[in-house]
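Board notes (copied after class):
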Amino acid sequence: MISWRVSATNGSDYEISGEALPDAIAAGFDRIRRDLGLGNAAGVHLVSVTGEYRAGILGGRGGVEVVIEHQGLDLAHRPANDEARTSKAWVYAQPEDAPEPFTVSLTAGTAV
């Protein structure tokens, strides 16, 4: 099991773990979702979750940019907005952790 550190948007950075970075993102997705404040009170509908190494992020140190396309779910008193939104998380990582862009397997219609 390998651990990576996620740059938190609010508060302290936190770790995610897995056999490979896409697995760690999937296993730690609930924490990432909460950190980014995705969705609404009813939850979030995931359109896609992808990652790619970016050399210039995290103060020039480089890391993986996780791009999450999502929508809120319908609320009892109002339907969800049909337009997907995009949020990003940054993971401290090396180029060999993500030599090619990847898709995280918990996507495509998952509601969390």
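Comment from the instructor: Residues 2-103 form one domain. The mean pLDDT is 85.
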